[in-house]
Structures are given as structure tokens and as C-alpha cells.
Amino acid sequence: MAEEPQPAATGAPRVGAGPWSVALRRLRRNRFALASLGLFALIVLFSLAAPLWAVHVAHTGPNTTHTLAKVEVDGEKREVVDPTGKPTGPLWLGAGGRFFLGADGSLGRDEMVRLMYGGRASLFISLIAALITTAVGAVLGLLAGYFRGWPDTLISRTLDVIWAFPVLLLAIALGLVLAVGGLQIGPVTIPSGSIWIPIMIIGVVFVTYTARPVRGEVLSLREKEFVEAAVAQGAGPVRVMSGELLPNLWSTIIVFFTINVANSMLLESALSFLGVGVQPPDASWGTMIASGSNLIKSAPLLTILPGAMILLTVLSLNVLGDGLRDALDPKSKLRLEVHTGLVEADGTPV
Amino acid sequence: MRKLHAALAILGVVAAALVLASCSSSGGKEGGTLRGTYASFPDALDPALARTVEAWTALYDTYLPLLTYAHADGQAGSEVVPALAESLPKISADGKTYTLTLHKGLKYSDGTPVKASDFAASVERMFKLNSGGSPFYTGIVGAEKFAETKTGGIPGIKTDDKTGQIVIQLTRPRGTFTTELALMYVAVLPADTPVKNLTADPPPATGPYEIVKSEPGRGWSYGRNPQWEKTNGKLISSVPGGHLDKIDIRVVSNPSTQVNEVERGSSDWMQTTIPSDLYNGVKEKYEGSQFRVEPTISNYFFWMNTTTTPFDDLKVRQAVNYALNGAAMERIYAGTLKANQQVLPPGMPGHKKFELYPYDMAKAKKLIAEANPSDRDITVWVDDEDPNNKAAAYYQGVLKKLGFNAKLKEIAAEDFFPLTGNLSTPDLDTGWLDWYEDYPHPNDFFQPLLSGESILPVENSNFAQIDDPKLNAKINRLGEEALGPKQEAEYAELDREYMEQAPWAPYGSRTVSTFVSDAVDLEDIVFNPTFGQDLASFQFK
Predict the structure, then answer these.
(1) Would you say residue B15 has pLDDT above 60?
(2) What is the pLDDT of residue B2?
(3) What integer pLDDT is reported at residue B385 of this predicted model?
(4) Between the CA atoms of B86, B91, B96 and B100, what dihedral angle is there, to the nearest 10 degrees?
(5) Nearest to residue A66, comparing CAs of B393, B383, B509, B405?
């Protein structure tokens, strides 16, 4: 275990590690957060490996149908879909990895391949949507909080309008409107059915969830002495915002990003379940739950598996988000360090 | 003598009791509230706009045309009988003039009297709304012009409110017109009915039930029409009065949940066919007691837009037909579909089985190579109901195998027809459709779906947009003639001629099911081949 730097006996200023390395050290000592990070990494790897599994093991694509196909299981030919339309259950390695988790319904698509590809879609959408949400939210919050006055009024009231709508209802309405004609803003055209439609929808409806807290924090930070000092030295608004305020907001932004990824994944799943997210036949965990729910009695795994993947992903991101907050937030220093054994409960270093 | 009288009286009472008992064969009880479920809200609860079987089932006992289809199962249910009219129409010798007379004293559910002029107004309203049923009635003198201008009335319909007489003049004889007068599109509504889709606020009814509440997307409720018992029911003998006091229909989008609710008894009837994974289990467990298979005269197919690339090329359309495997479709529909590759389904007069395009993927690919279409980006339209959406996903896979970049567009069932029937909707390349007979006449599968006259800017029903003058003329000529063996043979020939043009890739006819809770008397439920389950026949045990 690395030793904490001790203050010099002479009373000279203590030369400590930077805030990022302190945060990293704290994070490394939080076993729950590390386990969550590991779990999330595994889920990402699982999804990234989809093409490898599809080509080398399952020998089929995520949307390839096998309604009338037969598969050899332990030397015996078996129908992927029986004449009553019931799909085969998990074959595990009985067919050399083909239909490892069975088929997805009367179309006979490989469930394992779809689960992996579905993960790619769900993760891609939630990561990009969270990136957009966090970036746009942070910029809007920064502008509103720093300038106050009419820019604040304009931004905050616009966000209030978005905030006033129930998130899911707003997302469904946007999804339905964009489902047929797509989206065209100036030269940018997003065709209907594109994966960018749910990304844009989620990006829009969650902006306010980042922008408002960032604005609040900027309102507080802009009154601090270091900002006054920067202004006194002639720094303009852009320099103050980028050089003074933003570095102090990073911890908040990073924590919000992880929470936004988790929330985006939940919203993407809900939208896809309701038919306004990822469009069939493409798989996402939400669309897989929707199609599996028709077979809930005869093939419950088709619903449980994508549901479990969403649960694990969101859980891992939430616990990781908590861990990051504890590691990055100076206010949580005492709580965390007591927990990790760096200080006594009264604040005395161990 | 007095003893004899007493004995005769007793015998009379016993006989009357026996007659009454036989009338109510299953001993069902009157009254009660039926709780039913639909998988999606019907396309419209406005008779002029209702196009789907789901909507017609919902409106069969609510809105009555001058004529209607007998409230009976099977072949008997295909018979046209008088409804608001006193009798079947008197047809002139030249076949162009139809004369009917309204029953005297009929009233709408709101108490206002039904007038002969309401019929003319209802037909005009249907044209003003650009209803999908319009092509059935453009043969009325002046109707075609009215469909374009929407003003000036239809001179071919003359009415007399005093006598209740309605005279309809056609431009040319039309062998199917009597059956078309029994369609929901021309159900009689008050003359002042607003010219807009009244699904959310259905107009007053003439049948035994009225819609008392409608929440589009969620459900609707029926109550007894107060005028039925007072007046209408006494005048209209062909329509049963119904046993139930109230009917509540909810939309439950998951058919598995619908099955579960019926099994638990929290719902009494599901309109939707049992989902494929539960179908055989339900059939085994409940057939005869709560479950019944109902044959339909229907066609399930994919249309191809013949006016745009790549489907403007006959070879491409033929290739699609060769590439579509009926056996796979039968499996996707889990035994509720019988493969069929022609326009007329089995059971329809004129159906003569042929198979122009037996499954042959190699031949299909060869045809595509010959056609070498310049545009390979295709949008496939389908509604979101299972297993139609699965059939379309399979079809998309087939198109991909043929080298197309096919994109699936799944639309909520209630929005599907308005969107795909609107020619301004972008990317109407190809799509799924089912068609159940409107009336038992082969013309019903040709005129609305394949005649060039049926291509409409909105509410279009010729989805392939095929417009072949020679075939149009044949449809029109056959439509003028009364159906007989000669005409049936010609319809069979027309079927083949159209399939040679391959505007569709048909894949089968379907059976549907009636599934009710243990509390409902299955035996007495009527399944009309055109309208589906007759809600007036439902009765609790």
C-alpha cells in the first residue's frame, strides 16, 4: 500500500498528489466501484465481440432468419422452429455454439447473436446520447450560470419547458413524429429508422437533467475569489469559463455522465419496447424484450436475458457513478477516507 | 269439458315453455357486461372510414346500412338481407336503377328520426372524407364528379323523406351493388353528422347497441340503444337485439396478456387471434368449450409499388414471388395460415388453384440479375401486430438475399392504413397487407385492390398502384354482370392474369379464433365471414 505523503517537519507547504490522482487512488480503494467497473467492462467486451461470435461460432447474422432450418445437435437433426412456431431453447454447445441461447421465435434468429448485437446498439445509443446530453447540458449550464440575466432566463425557461413534460411521454411523442419522415435540421438529415433518432430523442429530453445542476454550481463558483481574481487580471468570459470554471466542474460532469448513460439505457429500452426506439428487425435489448414478451409463457428466457443485461448494465453504472462521486467530490472526502481507512472518524490521519 | 279445457291449458303452457326453452338452446342468461379486449384500437369507429375487420366487428351491431349481411355463421352469413330498408332493392330491367324504401318510424339512438335523405348525406360524407370505400360507389350517377369537387350533391341518389323512398341511379349495371349497399361505408347517419373522423365521438346509432364512450388508443364501451327496443328492433327483424346490457372493450396490446386474462376470467373475450406460441396449447385445452377455429376468406400478401423502381420491373416482382417460401410463412403463423399464391383465396367464388411461382431462390436471383435494378433501397411497411411483423421481417430477409438494401418500417396498427394509404407518404415501395372479404364476390378482391380506379391520393387501397387498362376494363365488365359459372371462370382467368403481372407476392389465407372465458356461452356465438364475431350473439351462461 502506497504511503500518504507526510507534511514536512519544517512546516513547509505539503506537496501532495494532484486531485485526479487522489481521486483515482480513492476509486481504486472502493471495491464496489471497481467491481462495477469490471462488470461494465465485461458487458462492453461481450457486446463488442458480437461480430466474432456471429462469424466464427454461430455462423449467422443477427437478423438472419432460420424458420425452416435444421441444426445438428449431438448428431441428431433438430428443427430450429417446430411446425407450431415454437423456437428451440438453448442448445449451449450442443450445436458447436450455434443457437447457444436458442432461437428468438418463429423467425428462428440466433438469440445469443441478437443479444450481443443488441448490446452494441443499446450501449452505443446510451453512450452517445449521454455524451450529447452531458456536453450540451454542461455548456448550457455554464452559459446560463455565468452570464445570468437574459441568457439565463432564455436557457432556464427553455429547459423548464422540457422539464415540464414527462420524459417518457415526450420521448414517445418525438419518436412517433420522427418514425415516418425522419429528422431534417438544415443540412443535417437523419432518415427514419436510423439509430440516431433515439440518440437525438434521448439527448434532447435529458439535457435539462445535467444543465440545471451545472448551472447551480456555476452560480456558486462564479462568486468565488479565484474567479474574481481572474476577472481582475483581465480574463474574458470565455477564458474564465474554460480556464477557471470548467476545471472545477469536471467532477460533477463525469459523475453525471455515468448516471446519464444508465438513464439513457433505460429510456432507450423503454422506447424500443414501445416501438419508437431501435427499429425492427435490428436488435436492441429493448426490442428483444418487446418481441420476447409475446413468448413469455413458452420461452421466458427471451425476455429475461435482455432484461438481465439491462439490469446489470444500469446497476454497474449506478454503483460506478456513486464511486466516482465519492472519489471526485471533496465534500465526500471524510466519509470516503473513513470508509477506506485513510483517516479516523474525527479526521485524524491514520 | 272443463277438465279437457284445463288439460289443454296445461298442455299449452308446457308447449310454450318448451318452445321458449328451445329458443334459448343453451339456457344462457340475458343482460350483464361483457369485457373484451382488442390488440390495438380499430382504424376507425366511424362507419364511413372503418376499413378493417376489427373495426367492422366493432360496428356491426351499431351502425346499420340499408341492407346488411345476415347475422349468421358461414355461408348463411354471406346472404344480404334488409336492414334499414324494408326489403331488398327493386332493380330495373337495365340493372341501373335501385329502389329501396326505409322502414317508417326508425330513430337514431339520440331520438331523432331516420330520414331517406340521410342516406344521400351519408354517401356524400363518405366521399368528402375520401373514404377507402369510395370506389365501391363511384358508379352512382354524378358520384365520380362529386368525389373530385365535394360539392353539388350526387344527382344519382334521389330521396323522398315523406315516403322514405330512395332511388339510386347507376351509370352502368353493377352486379355487386346490392352487396355493396350492405357495407359499413354507407351505414346511415344523421344528415348533419360532421364531416370529420368521429372515432373519438361516434355518431348516433341505428343498431341494437350504441357506442357510449370512446377513448382512441385505449378502448370503448357500448350500451343498449334506447330506441332499439322502442322502435327499430320492432321494425328490423334481420338484426338480433343482443343479450348483453353493456360491452366494454379495452386495448391490451400484448396478445399473451389477452389470453391470460381470458383464462383467468378477468376478460370475457379477445378479438385477436391467439399468439402463435400459445395457439396450440389453448386449442388443445379449450377447443369446444371456450375456443373455436373460424375459417376466413382472406388473403395475406406483400404489395409491390409498380410505379417506382425497382418494382416497376416485372422481373423483379416475379423474382420476389419465386423467393417467398409459403412453407416458412405457414410456420411463422404457427398453423393459422394456409399457403396460397394467388389473388382469390380458397372459398371465394372464382378461386381456381394455380401456382405460378413455386419456391425457387436460384430462379429468383437469376431474374434479379437480368433486371439489374438501379435502385436497391427498399422500405418494407408492416403493422406492429404479431405475427404480421414477423412475416415482414422474414420478407425483408428474402429481399436482402435478392440483393436489396431492405429497411423495415413497423407502424402501429391504428396508423398503418392512414399512412400507407396516403400516396404522399415517402418510400411506399412495398409492404404487408391482409384483405378479408367485404362481401362474398370475387370483385371485392379485384376492384378495390387492383383496379386503376381505386388509386386514390389518400385512403388508397390499390397499394401496388397497378393500372392496367385491359385488366381494369375486365374488372369493370365483370362487375356489371351477375355472378354465375361463366363469370367465375373469367374471374379465375383474371386472377391468373394479375399474378402474371405479379403486383403482389401473396402468401396465404388465415384462420382466426374465437376465445372466450368460461362464463360465456361459446356455442351461440356467431362468426360472420365478413364482420367477424357478432357481439349481439354473445351471452353469459
Answers:
(1) no
(2) 44
(3) 87
(4) -10
(5) B393
**Which residues are registered as beta bridge partners of B287?**
B291
Between CA A260 and CA A255 the distance in angstroms is: 9
Q: Which of residues 217-256 of A touch B (CB under 8 A)?
A: none
Rounded distance between C-alpha atoms, residue A238 and residue B78, angstroms: 79
Q: How many residues does chain A have?
A: 350
Measured at the CA of B229, the angle between CA B225 and CA B231, to 5 degrees, comes to: 100
Q: How confident is the model at residue A11 (pLDDT cuts 50, 70, 90)?
A: low
Of A41, A182, A242, A184, nearest to A123 by C-alpha is A41
Q: How far apart are CA B459 and CA B111, in angstroms?
A: 32
A293 contacts B334? CB cut-off 8 A = no
Q: Are A133 and A207 in contact (CB under 8 A)?
A: yes
Task: Tell me B229's DSSP state.
Answer: I
Closest-CA residue to B126 (of B180, B197, B208): B197
B9 burial class (0-12, 13-18, 19+ CB within 10 angstroms)? exposed
Q: Which helix (H) or strand (E) holds B533?
A: strand B532-533
- The amino acid at residue B200 is A
Q: How far apart are CA A255 and CA A130, in angstroms?
A: 11
Pair type for strands B337-338 and B246-251: unpaired
Contact (Cβ atoms closer than 8 angstroms) between residue B73 and residue B530: no
Decide if A294 and B254 are in contact by the 8 Å CB cutoff. yes
Contact B256 A86 (CB under 8 A): no
Pairing of strands B430-436, B377-383: parallel
**Interface predicted TM-score of the whole assembly (ipTM), two decimals:** 0.82
| Model confidence pLDDT, tens digit, residues B294-319 | 989 999 999 999 999 999 999 999 99
Judged by a CB distance cut-off of 8 A, whether residue A281 touches chain B is yes
Instruction: For the beta carbon of residue A343, count every other beta carbon within 10 angstroms.
Output: 17
State the pLDDT at residue B412.
Answer: 85
b/e for B446-464, b at 16 or more Cβ within 10 A?
bbbbbbebbbbeebbbbbb
DSSP H/E element including A321: helix A301-328
Cβ B394–A67 below 8 Å, yes or no? yes
Mean pLDDT, rounded, of chain B? 93
pLDDT digits (tens, 9 = 90+) for A217-233: 999 999 999 999 999 99
Q: Which residues of B touch A281 (CB under 8 A)?
A: 393, 396-397, 408
Cis peptide before B310 (omega within 30 of 0): yes
Residue owning grid cell 353469459 = B540
Name residues whose C-beta falls within 8 Å of residue A18's C-beta, 6 or more positions apart in sequence.
none
Q: Do A280 and B408 touch (CB under 8 A)?
A: yes
- Out of A84, A280, A299, closest to residue B280 by CB: A84
CA-based nearest residue to B310, from B361, B362, B356, B367: B367
pTM of the model: 0.80
Calculate the alpha carbon distances from B354 to A201, B105, B433, B497 in Å: 50, 52, 21, 12
